[in-house]
Design a protein that fits this description.
The structure is a homodimer. By secondary structure, chain A is mainly α. In chain A, the strands form two sheets. A three-stranded mixed sheet of chain A has the order 1-2-3. Chain A has a three-stranded mixed sheet with strand order 4-5-6. In chain A, a hairpin with a 5-residue loop joins strand 5 and strand 6. The longest helix of chain A is centred in the C-terminal third of the chain and has 33 residues. Chain A is elongated. In chain A, 48% of the residues are buried. At the A-B interface, helix 4, helix 13, strand 4, helix 16 and helix 17 of A face helix 4, helix 13, strand 4, helix 16 and helix 17 of B.
Chain lengths: 460, 460
């Protein structure tokens, strides 16, 4: 029985390599017993494209397409460019319509057209229709394969047709019921069908308010419908209410992971497509763009500091302590920002909740501002006794100001982005640290200039 | 037809409030037509506990349990503490065993015992058994309700028994086949059953290597099995191979979101349980602990800076520029750290991949280190021409060192934590910025002390 852990203990790349050179026939046989996920892991372990291509030749045609789809996007696209059209055409053949569309999306237009031509006319039409939807919408996620029946049929007729036509549909868990214009009017869990009398009308036993997605709906919203309604599949309708496809929960798992990765990466100033398997140069370039943006904001902070050259050169303790104020503000702001971005992504932030959140986060900043003002004020006073408690007072005040600003900015930045229909995670981390750095340095050095410099001059 | 967007347009809290005071009977009727998710949204919108409790009285008993489970944990626990045992007992009654166990977990032990006593003996035994598993393991996720048949039965017998006993099981998509000792030997998608002859033996048509989870397996691993095998439900077996429960894909969606939230929060120094709906004091306390930890590392960085008082008071440009070096290192390191933590969470990092990743990330750091060394070196030379290109050279060298260290540390910290079986996300952000701050300040100020101070003295 395959369990991921056990499977990887059974057949390693080393075994495949040895079979590859010594007993290719056994490798062919072996590959047939492996699960798609296991084959994909083997391919991921290969060291170069040559070995990878050699191994791919032993993957059974009927699972090749699914294996390719399991691989990370970067690697998949490299392989798609390398594999001959004849092989890809075979791989395409055994895929459901949504998977076929996904695979074609990774190809050059020319190659995709060649492959499309090799499909039957019906399949080609379906795949083309799927390709016309935005990749990240319900239409882009759905598959055309589903089982639909007319609302005026009896349970017996449904069962009969199901036995005849349902065989090819994978994960057939719901039956969808449509009217004469193909509009969705109901759904029924397959196993419920078994408990009905054959004579009953399907309209009598169906669920008349089925949860559904609209073709144009964003995939994040679709995931939320799945989570709210705890369903394993969702029918997709167009603007006229016509049933055009269905999405199964296993596809939504991928969406949820993808969206979470996207938010995490954006918060950390990383591109969505960043991947460990991608070439060093590309990664360096992608990260470099974000680093460049950060350089600009860091230089802005430096510019703020440079306005206080006088007081900095008089009191070196300021240079020693100022990173603490900025760092604490950065962390406090990031805490708020992360909770906000995640809550927005999970659909938990309405307008009312958002307003309350800004207030709450500002207060949390104020409270921790007070606490750490006291602590850091005391430490500063003890560490640099020459300037006495005045330095402690200045850093305490600046800490209070910066943590409060951090809480407020951490809550307001993502909400503002959301209001302007921009992803709340995008660049918000950079915006936030700009605020906390500038407020931190400005308040600390500014207060020092106003209150400490006169003291020093008096003493001097 | 309910679609989240439409639903929220249909019935708002304001409507409920008005019905509450003017037409409570219609509110009762209305509640019966709403979906669980819709009722939960209404409750989330209430402003105080009084209103919330009043509204809860109108929630139909048969969905009350599920509504409670849909609410965020903090709010749910508050409500559970308030609701009388009699109401909770009704709510418990209509839940599946895993949901019942989840609900009981939020109660005081005493209250949980009272409620358990109200269940039938069989249900009580099942729920108790589920409660004995770790909440975050396959055993803690699974439900006891499933449909299992003996391996020596015919398809006809299976269908007959299914019609008799399967009615109560929700989302019944797979039939599990066990031997005489209740050990899992096969599975069969329900709809496949419809295409079999009644006379066929179930052993002939079943899938003999069903993917499965072990009761003790961590929920993150279970989610990975779901993703790899694209199944909608997974049987759970104990160490003897005995079938003890099943997990459905909708539960895994919650797990995936939960784990992603956990990683995001830990990377941002936020506790897993942080929530917008929790009281200000608790949030401030939870965040404060992390801020305290950050204060220690920020003070360590200050201590490093304080070792260079001499050169800092001679060249104020150092104080102005040093935050840039630290900030760039922090961002570059966080980029690497985030990609590593996420890749580990998604199960994409084997030992070999990890080793390659450290090399790759170090190189990426080196490349961007070179690029930004040139840029920042030039800026520094132009901005502070008094010390000439020497300052530019020092900041360039320090930038190169810090970005390389950032890449290496960003990759190694999570891998090392993982090796010691600690969550790679936990406190790794704080560790990383400690490294980049210390390396940044040390290299920048250290090089300045060695190369710039003698120049100044010579000039002076």
């Amino acid at each position: 029985m395959p369990n991921l852990k056990q499977a990887s203990q059974i057949f390693h790349l080393a075994d495949a390599q040895s079979l590859l050179s010594h007993d290719p026939d056994r490798l062919t046989a072996m590959m047939k017993t492996l699960h798609i996920a296991e084959i994909a892991s083997l391919i991921l372990e290969t060291r170069d494209q040559h070995e990878c291509q050699r191994l791919l030749r032993y993957v059974p045609n009927e699972v090749l397409g699914e294996v390719l789809l399991t691989l990370p996007e970067g690697i998949r696209e490299d392989l798609l460019a390398l594999l001959p059209s004849a092989v890809l055409s075979l791989a395409l053949h055994d895929l459901s319509s949504d998977d076929a569309a996904d695979l074609l999306q990774g190809l050059t237009e020319e190659k995709a057209e060649t492959l499309l031509a090799s499909l039957s006319e019906e399949d080609r039409r379906e795949v083309r229709r799927l390709l016309s939807h935005d990749e990240e919408s319900a239409g882009g996620l759905m598959q055309a394969e589903l089982f639909k029946v007319r609302v005026d049929w009896s349970v017996g007729k449904v069962l009969k047709v199901l036995r005849r036509w349902g065989r090819e549909i994978e994960n057939l868990n719901y039956i969808y019921i449509v009217d004469d214009d193909d509009r969705l009017v109901g759904s029924l869990a397959l196993h419920r069908l078994l408990f009905c009398e054959k004579k009953q009308a399907i309209a009598e036993v169906m669920h008349t308010r089925p949860a559904h997605a609209l073709a144009g709906q964003d995939q994040e919203e679709v995931a939320r419908i799945f989570e709210h309604y705890d369903v394993l599949a969702l029918p997709v309708i167009d603007n006229e209410g016509v049933l055009i496809g269905r999405i199964t929960a296993d596809d939504i798992l991928d969406v949820v992971q993808e969206e979470a990765t996207e938010d995490m990466y954006r918060l950390a100033a990383v591109s969505d497509d960043d991947d460990l398997s991608e070439p060093i140069g590309i990664t360096a370039w992608r990260r470099g763009i974000w680093l460049g943006l950060n350089l600009l904001t860091a230089l802005l902070a430096s510019f703020v500091i440079s306005q206080f050259e006088g007081v900095l050169s008089s009191i070196v303790a300021l240079a020693i302590l100022m990173p603490v104020v900025a760092s604490m503000g950065g962390i406090a702001g990031t805490q708020t920002l992360t909770v906000m971005v995640r809550s927005i992504a999970l659909g938990r932030v309405s307008l009312a909740v958002g307003r309350r959140a800004v207030l709450k986060e500002t207060f949390v900043g104020l409270i921790n501002g007070c606490v750490f003002a006291l602590i850091l004020g005391a430490i500063a006073s003890v560490w640099f006794p020459v300037i006495g408690w005045h330095l402690g007072l200045v850093i305490a005040a600046s800490m209070l100001v910066n943590l409060t600003a951090a809480g407020m900015a951490g809550a307001m930045i993502p909400l503002t982005l959301k209001r302007f229909h921009i992803d709340p995670a995008l660049a918000s981390g950079t915006m936030l640290t700009t605020v906390t750095d500038v407020v931190g340095f400005l308040s600390f050095l500014g207060l020092a200039q106003v209150f400490l410099l006169p003291l020093l001059n008096k003493a001097g």
